[in-house]
Amino acid sequence: MEIYCDNAATTPLDPEVIETILPFLIQNFGNPSSTHWAGRRVKEVVNQARKSVAKLLNASPDEIFFTSGATEAINLAISGAIAAYDIDHVITSRIEHKAVLQTILQQEKKGGIKTSFVKLDERGNADLHDLENLLRANPRTLICLMHGNNEIGNLTYVRAVSSLARDFDAIFFTDTTQTIGKQQLDLGETHIDLLAGSAHKFHGPKGAGFIYINKKHTIPAQIFGGGQEHGQRGGTEHVSGIAGLAKALEVACRDMAVNHEKVSALKQYLIRKLAICGVDGIGYNGESSSPERSLANILSVSFPCPATGSLVKSLDQLGIAVSGGSACSSQGSSHVISALPHQPDKEHVRFSFSKFNTFDEVDHIVQAIAGIYRANPVQKTNQSRFHFELTH
Ligand code: PLP
Question: Which reaction does it catalyse (predicted)?
Answer without folding.
Answer: (sulfur carrier)-H + L-cysteine = (sulfur carrier)-SH + L-alanine
